[in-house]
Structure formats: C-alpha cells, structure tokens
Amino acid sequence: MKIKKNSFNTILIVDDISSNRVLLRKMLTHLGFETIEATNGQEAIELFRTSSPDLILMDINMPVMNGYEASTAIKAMAGENHVPIIFVTALSANLSLTEALQSGGDDYVNKPIDLRILESKIAAHLRIRELNQKILNHNQELLYEQETIEHFFNKALSQSHLDPRYINYHLSPMSAFNGDILLAEKGPNGSLYLMLGDFTGHGLRAAMGTLPVTQTFFPLAQQGTSIGDIAAQLNQQLLDVMPVDMFCAATLVELDQTGKRLTIWAGGMPDLYWVDPTGELKGTIHSQHMPLGILPDQQFNRSSETLFPEEGDQLYLYSDGIIEAGVLDGKPYGESRLKDQLTSPKQNRFERVLTDISAFRDGREQEDDITLVELTCDARTAPPRIDGTTTDTIDSENSTIPIS
Amino acid sequence: MNVRSVFSPDNNNLKIEVTGKFDYSLLSKFREAYSDENHRDANITLDLRDTTSIDSSALGMLLNMRRYMGDQTDNIVIINCNTSVKKILMISRFDQQFSIE
Predict the structure, then answer these.
(1) Structural domains of chain B, ranges and CATH numbers in brackets
(2) Helix, coil or strand: residue A32
(3) A247 touches B: beta carbon within 8 Å
(4) Of A130, A214, B3, B29, which residue is 20 to 30 A from A312 by alpha carbon distance?
C-alpha cells in the first residue's frame, strides 16, 4: 500500500531517546512526510497546539509527562478534529496496550519497528483522518448554508402581523426548520387574516413551501381578497412549484373588523374549536377540503364557513403534531385530551394546554412540528383610516416567528 | 414495516399490503411496489389491514402512486383501514381522490 507523497501531512514524533527519534525521522522522511519532534508528553502538547500535526507517534515511558497522559490531553484539546495517535512500544503486556488505547491512543506499533507495518498503519489512520476532515468541512458548509436559508425564512416571515392582542401562539419545530407556518396580516378594512399551514413531513424539505406561501398570502390579504380566493391561489401556486407528493394542510381565517364574523377555509387540518370565555364549546369546525397543492384549479373548492362569535370568544387552531405528541405506550396526547383542556372553565387555557402537553411528553422526543394558536374575537381597537392604514400604535413588527 | 405486492393471476390486479407504520421510511419500497411499466393498466388494491399508522409523507406517496397510475379516481382502491388510519385519510379528504372502503 503506497502512501501518497503529501508534504501537507506532518507527523509529530514523541520520544525522550534521541536515537529513536532519529530512526523514526529517517523512516518518515523516506516515506515522504514532514516531521516535528518532542522529547516528552509536555512538549508534545505544546507542539500539538502550535503546529497542528496530522498524526502522532507516541512513546510511552518518558520523563516530565508520559505518553498516556499526553494522549488524553491532546485528544481532549483536539475535540472533533481527529488526530490519530499511534503508540510506539516495546511493551508487550496486554495491560499497557489496553491502557494506551484507553488513554486516547488509536493504535500501536511494536519495537523494533517494521517499516512496512509502520507505513501501512500510518496510511490507514490518515485515511480515517481524511474522512474526518471531510465531514468537518461538510458540517461547516452545512452550518453556513443553514444560516443563509434561515435568513431567507426569517425575512419572509417577518412581515407577519401576529398582533398579541388577538393572537396567542406557540410554535415548536422539531428541527432547525419548521414545516408548520403561521402567518397573519391586516386587511384594508381592518379585518385580520390568519393562516396556519402544515407541510408534508418536517425539516427543510417541508419548510421550503414557506417562501411561495408568504409571497402569495401577504399581498392578497392586504388587498382584502376573500378567504376562499386566497386558498385557491395558494393551491394553484403550490401545485405549480411543489413535487407531487407534497402538499400543505391549511386553515385560513378572516376575522372582520367588528370581531363578530369569522370566515374559515380548512383543508386537511384537525378540528378547530370555537370556545366562549367561560370555556363553553360553541362549535367544532371540521376540515371540509383537501389540503392545498393537490387538486387542479377546476376541481378546487373555495367554499368557506362563516361563524358569528361574540366578544371574547376564542378560536383554537393547531397542527396535528400536537395531538400526535409524545406517544406513550402507543397512545399519543390525543384529540380528546386537547379538547378537554381547551374547553376547561379555568383561566389561561392556552398556557395550561402547553404545560399539560409538556407534562405528557415528559421529555420524550418530538416527532413532528407542533403549533397551537388562540385567536380572540375582539373588535379591532383601531378603526381603519380612509387610506387603508390603521392607527395602531402597538409595535407588532417585532412579533416575528422564530425559525429555531 | 414492510411493503408486499402481488399480482393477480391474470395480471389485472395488483394488491399491495403495508405492514406497521406507513411513513417516509417506506418511500422507495412503496414506489417499487407499483412501478412496473408492463402493468400500468392494472387496478391497484391497497390493503392496509396490517397498517398501524399513517403520516403525511405516506399521503404524499399515495398521491405519487395516483399520478403514476394516470390520475384517475377509480383504479386505486384502499381497503381495510383501521380507525386512526381512516381518520387521517378522511381529514385530508382523500376519499375525494381514492376509493376508500
């Protein structure tokens, strides 16, 4: 097995006996490596810090600091960066070999050194190091890409007017990217538009749909488009850009300026609950439609449902991640437990549900993105001006959705 | 988790069975089960008797199959769904695009 002559590979020789170092240096130079040398463990640590060698040949018994201690320290310093340590030993007792490997060593060669064995072992360990370096580089690149993509998502979602006076929400993506999407926007006549969507799957793949959806939803809401027409346009857009096996289950809601009329289009989402301030369930709204991004336009059904809530009534929207949360003995959190919590006569239902879910999950891993939204049906306090803008003073620009 | 597919003796009907969790981990196995250029005209019976649960990725896989089979509503029949599987199919109104028995 030939080692590629590669002057970038530097090997650190650690031995207190000069003649041993000279022998190794000659062998390694012959094999085409650069070498640096330390005479004890302490020096080895220093040289590791300053010269970043690719591999270390380590003697065991040395003054000041022995090879075991030096290996442990160097491995700790190296962290994810894999620097192979090969012990060069005249010891043949199993015990010391075990100790050598446990202290962080990766392999050993026996004295007297056989050049071909040394060459093969170095080659094998450098291959592992090369793989490790590749992974580290890929990770760096992935992190960088992820940051950039996050920027796009954050910008796309930053328009959302999730006004805390009317909207209480909890988003809990299971990974860096959220396959659930929550958007809110003010209509020209003071109405409030809300959309909760849940894309197929989770992670980046699912989150991709966020970008086209925001581009369609915000302008249409700003123009005061009807809920059914917004749904139809989103459907067509997703059909155009998404692969066949992806879709977006979604609920779109418009609450008019008086807070007394709710228009809802729901496709592929779990039931919505309409609850009065005392916790009385006033209605359960079932999804009537297929999710967005499946049906061609001519088959798409834009019919919506209208509810007439009273002041202070609340509408609860959620993604199915919540009812499927924290499966225990095959049983998830479940719709009925969620319904019980949401129709409890007690105060602060929203917070209580979140606490209850987290207690149920009991640290078990999340299997899907989780979103819960509480929309309170109050009249908008700020009547619209003639030009369509409102006199709102509360800064809702900051209530953007965190991506991670 | 597994996918099994059997053609009827006359090759006109393909029966596909999914056992366990029907989710993204079955992506390629499920696709292989119906991808057969020689039998594009076959009817498919998807038997979910032994399917314990189904997720949205699986719904996507059903849409893929439907596209492959020519986007018709009458050549794919889904049978023997348990309650929770049926509920998920119904929430997404897949009954509009597939025959669910």
Answers:
(1) 2-100 (3.30.750.24)
(2) coil
(3) yes
(4) A214
